[in-house]
Design goal:
Strand content: 15-25%
CATH class of the domain at 75-164: Mainly Beta
Radius of gyration: 27 Å
Oligomer: single chain
Helix content: 25-40%
Strand order of the largest sheet: 11-12-15-19-22-23-24-25
Distance between the termini: 61 Å
Mean pLDDT: 94
Largest sheet: 8 strands, parallel, barrel
Structural class: alpha/beta
Length: 727
Amino acid sequence: MTALWSLADAVGIERDYWDIYGQQHHLDADTCARLLTSMGFDVANEEAASRSLLDHTLRNWRRPLAPVKVLAAERDDHAVELVAPADAPDTVMHWRLEQEDGLRHRGELRLGQLQEIERRSVDEQDRARYRLPLPPYLPLGYHDLRLTQIGDDATASMCRLIVAPDTCYPVAPHPTGKRHFGFAAQLYSLRSESNWGMGDFSDLAALARVAADQGATTLGLNPLHASYTGHAHHISPYSPSNRGFLNLAYIDVEAVADYNACPDAQAHVARDSFRAALQSARESEQVDYGGVWQLKRDVLRQLFDHFKGHDLATDSPRAQAFESFCSERGPALQNQALFDALFDHFYREDSGRCGRQSWPDGFASPSDTGSREFVQAHPDAVLFQCYLHWIAEDQLRDATNVCSRVGLSMGLYLDLAVGCDAGGAEVWADPAAFANGVSVGAPPDQLSPAGQAWGLTPLNPITLEERAYEPFVRVLRENAHLAGTLRIDHVLGLKRQFWVLDGERATSGCYVRQPLDDFLRLVALESQRARCAIVGEALGTVPPGFENRLDESGLLAYRVLYFERWESLLFKRPDAYPERALVTASTHDLPTVAGWWRGREIDWMDRLGMFPGEAQAYAARAQRHDDRHRLLAALVDAGTLSPDHGIDANNPEPTPQLLCAVQGYLTASTGSLMVIPVEDLLGLEEQVNLPGTVDEHPNWRQKLPCSLTALFEQPLAQAMTERLRMG
């Protein structure tokens, strides 16, 4: 089908790719057709594909204005392209430009006054593309241009004009002139005497205090996105239900203002059976998400009932604050709350149900019959979820205020997941914005030799353009407004995404190009508005020149020790790291330093059959053996280990001296921000997540071995932070 492949080329579907083993993978016609179908095209046969190709090619010739235009803020000669019938110089058009701040510009023009750019016959009519100049010095932001032919309102056309800067908000210099450093923690993993079996927003505030005492200027966290709250197995923070809302499981129940005013809740918590369950949850080595949420949910429901009877009933100031929150978050909150209420309802009926695909007919979207009837029959269930989201956002905001007060000048370093789960609220509330039946993933690479399909539904680039990028902007904004720094996970997805059809092997996927230039401008705009620095995580198969492009846009590079090598595999010296970079030894998807030295992840992957064959497993172990020698040589060369260090590279047992030297090596780097995961701070060997596994490895469940208040009392942590402060 010639038209099929031409359409694929036109919408950015790449026909082949090379994996890390040097093998070329070609896209087959059936997979290509299914991918195009997921984007909304009819390609059932050659005729349909030809029609879809023509419609796509002519879409912006059939309307006066394209739906969106991203404009460079550093220029003052802005213009858009106007399409109108050719050879009609006397046609008069009325235009109105409304700025985001409400200021309006308006005027009239004759087509004969405009510069003609191009002509084309469209639907048996000659049409021309003209250059339409815009008012100079448009401010940053989102503006609307409306164009109407005089006497013919049917020709009205709208274009969202987005004036955006070329660079992101920069990292401010450290007050003392030193380099910024911070710690990264998985919030759920924190232990304290007050939490209910997993870290919460109050623990976050407490960790901010102790981190600031060590001289840190930022505190990094796993994604805090809304999840399938209380689900026992679907727990990955990188597979969220909705990236625009928070994970309700992080609520500190006893910190809710209604708790001290609710005797019923206090009596419930005081019961011996409850205290025993609570103690068990606190002492467990792994987080029991279902059990913890059950403890919290029952008490939170009592708090809501109290709030409803004592505040909503009297229109108290607290009730007014809640109603203001609901009004500000609008339909997005109502949809999220309805989804959460439905999930809670169906999950209690059958714990095997997770997300929209497992629900009965009639619940496919917020507007579906069953969904509307549920709202009418269970209004309190939906309002309860609104209340929980209000509490969660309020507690996170309190934690960010603590960061400011204690001296974490860069605030929270938050994480934006690359996508959302196919069954979650984000897709459910707006399915047309996504390419359903497709997962974002990665081809075979260092992290997963078999490739990955993450189960995350990508935004549909065709719909995204028609919607003036609004779904993309919304997610950026919701995550940047409470962050001092925002890490964009798999920032490679701004240029191209690896799409895998549901149910297919990862190797059968292909790359789909994205509007990189527009995306980077939008990231820069939201970054500047939120005064939030942006980190671009670009690990894996990185296209040539991509990292330079990110640097030009002011994103901090994400430089991980394990991958900072020359072609010879020797480790780069600390002074070879870029200045505009966040440097770290490890990440949540990689082994800790102690685990790397031991080859812990290689053992796991071999045990689980994740290597293509025995030869690859053997090669991985052999390389790790050689890499230990390379790392020791690099540490000695950089002066963080003395030549007579006495560490045996053939011994896989890591020593405190080695672990401190690794962090000292990064402390000596030229990167502007250094982050140490708390797992490395404690010398732990088990990594947070093993890519390519779900329940085979204790992903996203492991708690830290000590309380957060004792974290910096550990000898290894003290030695590492001393090195950091010296840097």
